[in-house]
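The protein record filed here.
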Amino acid sequence: MSKIALVTDSACDLTDEELKECGARLLPLRIIYADKEYRDRVEIHPDEVYANLEKEVPKTSLPSGEDIEALYRELKDEGYTHVLGVFISSGLSGTANAVKMYAEEHPSMVTHVFDTKNLSMAEGITVLEAGRLIKSGMALEEILEKLAAFQETIDTYYYVDTLEYLMKGGRIGKVAGTIGQLLNLKPIISVNRDGIYYTIAKAKGRKQALLRLVGILEENLAKYKCNVYVMHGAALEEGKALVETIMKMKNVQSMDLRQISPALGVHTGKGLLGICLQRNPL
């Protein structure tokens, strides 16, 4: 009889309670400063990363090989026959590919990696869905088909308050970034079907950009019922205000507020606000 382990990474933005409830094991991404590196959520909290951004912008990296290998040995000792990995977009991180490589050293367990082609709560709700399907007793091949269909119902949109960190991280060109700063252009970024950041809209100033972000959600709510997650990067009060606005809209099935992982936050800086929506038929 098959026994399926569920594995994800710390970009999923799920709480410890949610991870426990869905049975997911967590591989921490790494937050790397000039003098030291930390395991995300294990040795450093997102609040600390955001608080230090003005002093130093760290790099982020995939989980360490030691952590991946240790987890595989643990799963083998616990009698798992299959591993389902649900990870941050392979277009944004090497996590999925690293797990595939280490999985080759453990042929007694069949590993399937599901690339969410997204991050944060888009990844997180996919992990929750995977946990639900595993608990239902469904075969792994069918679970993968269900997750692929579920993935098509999810989109994320982020308002970025400053282009400074995207420029520093090489996510956008310096010329485009400088022009954007001079014109006070605020981008709305999303993740395309290849799992890579792209700019979906621009607006002049914070107020107009947030109105555009809300407008994108309203366009979806006109056609679908949606589970909505508001995500913030050290912008709790603004996040709460956005939640209040969204709660007044029709066709909102559920609503939640989360702090976003440093996996995105270090590339955007403080003031990030995002929306993850999962669409369902009216």
The chain is about 40% helix and 30% strand. The first helix runs from residue 16 to 22. The CA atoms of residues 9 and 27 lie 5 Å apart. The first strand starts at residue 4 and ends at 9.
